[in-house]
Amino acid sequence: MNLDEPVHVQYINWMTDITQGDLGTSFFSNQPVLEMIVGVIEPTLSIGTLGMLIAVSIALPAGIISALRRYQPEDYVATILAFLGLSMPEFWIGILLVLVFATTPIPIYGYTAISQGLVSWLSHIILPAIAVGVPYGAILMRMVRSSMLEVMSEDYVRTARAKGLDENLVVFKHGLQNALIPVVTVAGILFAVLLGGVVAVELVFGVSGFGRLLIGSIQRRDFPVIQGSVITISFLFVGMNLVIDFVYTLINPQIRYGGES
Amino acid sequence: MAEPLLEVENLRTHFDTEDGRVQAVDGISFSVEHGEIFGVVGESGSGKSVTARSIMQLIESPPGVINADAIRFKGEDLLEKSPPEIREIRGGEISMIFQDPMTSLNPVMTVGEQIAEVARHHLDTSESSGFWSEMKRKYVTGASHESESWRRAIELMDMVGLPDPEQRAHEYPHQLSGGMRQRVMIAQALAGDPSLIVADEPTTALDVSVEAQILHELLELRDEFDVSVVLITHDLGVIHETCDRLAVMYAGELMEKGKTGDVFEDPKHPYTQALMKSIPQITDDREWLDVIPGSVPDLVDKPAGCPFRERCEYAFEGCTEPLVEYDVGEKHTAACHLHSDEVNKELTDRPAAPESHEGPSEQV
């Protein structure tokens, strides 16, 4: 452990190990930390990804409708639902889902790996994914709404109308892509919020995922595992933002990497 | 005589705001002949742009409401048309060029596609322009560069003087200069083969040398495509260079209209006279320009009568009467009670009345 070394030496040792793929070993199980994390990351990423998909598929249509029908009943309903979604923490939504679905064939506990069948896998992660997706979708929906509203008052939208395009084309051909540019940026940053939500939701649904490992290690003061988990979250976060940057170049022609002017 | 291409009769457009009703355009009438360039000039807030957008029915409602006795285009009243019919006319029969080419082009679409889509919607190009095929074109396959509409776009870009159009068509607006973007706007306006182009301050955002080129381009295209143009500007110089006839707007009302030469040589309305006096001349030996005292009246709950009376040096008690347009020459009208018969009778006793023979253009 080299706990007798000065802190900066410990830190340099730890960093050196990380660059070689060595996150240390657990105080308790004596297992390599990297192995432990790889063993539990699949459920977490599954829930996170599906949760994000759910969030986006709520946020896009709801946000667009809300913007186009501003101050009309559709907008008020969407806004109220959004604030409801925002003010309920993920684990609370999770508990409600458990109560509602307890007597249905949809499992409310545990996880089966994707390799053991797609249907079983999906049925196990759908409820936790909804629990993390709803609050995230609510935030995103408000973003889509305000971004869409802004774009719809832009001059080029007026130009599109002056060309004689019908309103659907004005919105979806000329408006949507522009409205998504700021939303995509925020969506990447919010991914951290979503991952945080997964940690709590795993406990509610009894999924042995990354979140459970992290919380268990904190309770056990298993420092190497805590450190390894934190650095893993950082990598996921940075990686996600890199993906967002690539998506960005697809939807915003004013940003192109690599020479071409 | 053939009927005019566009006839606007008693157009009134207002906006209902929290402070009250803003009467942005207050009962104006004018007509545009075939092949003519008709200028509308006025200060900021005089209702020029709202007039343009009212013709196109591009006023957002609420808060805007368009009222008119008629807006006749080729003899048919646009106000009685259904929304799909209006969309056929927009871009196809009447197209529009906007003020700021920086913000009026879509930043995420190639300029070629922005021109081509107008051709697809308004011309017979054997390409589908339905919702799903447009979405597929936009998000899945990309615009076809072999298509008729794309070729039309390149042809138009060439005609409006964009260099290297085949290359440029693939570029995005941010890759073009301001003047080039305005040429793209013009190409876009021509793409549906319209009979009338409404140009809302097309050169205001450009520098002077580019402005001259663009105006020159407009004049040439007018002949080439046989279109009429409504040119909206606050720049009397632009009007003088390009327009056949003009209308002077103030506070939502038409002050004077007539042939460009007549109005410039012999302005009949005190407001027009004051405007002419405020133009700096290269031969000036004036130390100060003649500015019009005061400012444009508030358009919220506007009182009846001449809106200019507060700032007019010839104002008299009759100015609170509702405005009437008086004939003051051949196809030349001025909305000023000084030209009414009663006042003209008394005119001999009134030294203060405007002596149009001593018009300001001769003073300088």
Q: pLDDT under 50 segments of chain B (min length 5)? A: 355-364
In CATH terms, what is the fold-level topology of the largest domain in chain B?
A: Rossmann fold
What name does CATH use for the topology of chain A? MetI-like fold
Oligomer state equals heterodimer
**Beta-strand content bin of chain A:** under 5%
Q: Tell me the number of structural domains of chain A.
A: 1
The 3D shape of chain A can be described as globular
CATH level-4 homologous superfamily of chain A: MetI-like
Largest inter-chain interface? A-B, 25 and 34 residues
Order of helices and strands of chain A: HHHHHHHHH
In this structure, how is the largest beta sheet of chain A organized? none
CATH class of chain A: Mainly Alpha
SSE order and pairing:
The complex is a heterodimer of chains A (261) and B (364).
Chain A: H1 7-19, H2 33-68, H3 73-87, H4 90-101, H5 118-152, H6 155-162, H7 167-204, H8 210-220, H9 223-251
Helix pairs in contact in A: 2-3, 2-5, 2-7, 2-9, 3-5, 4-5, 4-7, 5-7, 6-7, 7-8, 7-9, 8-9
Chain B: E1 6-17, E2 20-32, E3 37-42, H1 48-56, E4 64-67, E5 70-73, E6 76-77, H2 83-89, E7 94-97, H3 111-122, H4 131-141, H5 148-159, H6 165-168, H7 178-190, E8 196-200, H8 208-225, E9 228-233, H9 236-242, E10 245-250, E11 253-259, H10 260-265, H11 270-277, E12 326-329, E13 332-334, H12 341-346, H13 360-363
Helix pairs in contact in B: 3-5, 3-7, 5-7, 7-8
Please explain how this structure is put together:
Chain A is mainly alpha-helical and 261 residues long. Chain A has one domain: Orthogonal Bundle (MetI-like fold), CATH 1.10.3720. Chain A has 9 helices and no strands. In chain A, helix 5 crosses helix 7. The longest helix of chain A is centred in the last third of the chain and has 38 residues. The model of chain A has no long low-confidence stretch (mean pLDDT 89). In chain B, the strands form 2 sheets. An 8-stranded mixed β-sheet of chain B has the order 7-8-9-3-10-11-13-12, with helices on both faces. In chain B, strands 1, 2, 4, 5 and 6 form a 5-stranded antiparallel β-sheet that branches. The longest helix of chain B is centred in the middle third of the chain and has 18 residues. Chain B has 2 domains: 241 residues, Rossmann fold (3-Layer(aba) Sandwich); 95 residues, no CATH class. Chain B is globular and about 75 Å long. The C terminus of chain B is likely disordered. In chain B, a hairpin with a 2-residue loop joins strand 5 and strand 6. The chains are: A mainly alpha (261), B alpha/beta (364). At the A-B interface, helix 6 and helix 7 of A face helix 2, helix 3 and helix 4 of B.
